[in-house]
């Protein structure tokens, strides 16, 4: 992760989340930048038409068209960012392209003024766009750097085609100015984005800690209590089954007393990793809700499928061959209570059904599962 940090690049999944984070925080900046572009170019256009005599140069009509083309990206960005979410996403993808387009137009206007013997000579408009490339506009450092480099290269290419050999030495001074702005802007943007990524990671870590159990790595009780009513509501909207499994490691206190707390912690971690493998779908959740008690929330999972998963969990734990604290020939097991959402049930009632089934499983000999009947307060069935 630190290697990616220095290169301002995370792992793909985290990088996508960071891009979404940038998008959320760059919306106002993009709108302000678009408005500033519109007003600045409009001001240039007004001055060129009203305060200076460019009619004799034969270039005023072309200049006006180029200025209007510079204004167009600002209008496009404003329209897209104020429209629907899908169009806002398009604006984020288009922003680097539009930025380079405006920069190239500014460079072309600068170069054309260099060829004219006119009183007005607005210079270094491309330089302003190079600096703007490194503003916080929802564009990452590498995209900003690419935009700035493309503007400089476009300026050099157009100058070599338009300017005479006698005019090029003076233009190289402008290019050196652009390169200096590029270096200063790149350094500033790098430092700024490094700080952004550091803050993003800190927020992600704090959010993860608040929602997860540190020992098992699973969701904690707080996260589970919030997810359960949300999944119930979604299951009812989608008309999908929802099953809740409550799991309790058998004789965990005796295991702790016999082998010590480090061994008990290792068992919690091992079982957490095992349980996480059964909650890989986006709407499933594995949680540690107590000392040795866990919950497995399975979306679009009916009672028959939940029973199959319960058997698989028991079998997978047995395959780990973890010694039982009371019997060297026996192995650590898990008791499971299963409840499937019924019409009219709320989160507390579903949890109560699973908890009652878990109690029955432990009372019936442990290392087994029990299924709650389809009532709000069921009599569990042993398996």
Automatic annotation (TrEMBL):
The keyword Repeat does not apply. Signal peptide: none annotated. It comes from Stutzerimonas chloritidismutans AW-1. One of its GO terms (molecular function) is diguanylate cyclase activity. Its cofactor is Mg(2+). The chain crosses the membrane at residues 28-46, 58-83, 95-113, 125-152, 172-191. Its EC number is 2.7.7.65. It catalyses: 2 GTP = 3',3'-c-di-GMP + 2 diphosphate. InterPro entries: Diguanylate_Cyclase (IPR050469), GGDEF_dom (IPR000160), Nucleotide_cyclase (IPR029787), Rev_trsase/Diguanyl_cyclase (IPR043128). It comes from the Bacteria. GO terms for biological process: cell adhesion involved in single-species biofilm formation; negative regulation of bacterial-type flagellum-dependent cell motility. CDD domains: GGDEF. Residues 240-374 form the GGDEF domain. Its main location: membrane. Coiled coil: none annotated. This is diguanylate cyclase. SUPFAM superfamilies: Nucleotide cyclase. PROSITE patterns: GGDEF. It is found in: Cell inner membrane. GO terms for cellular component: plasma membrane. Keywords: Membrane, Transmembrane, Transmembrane helix.
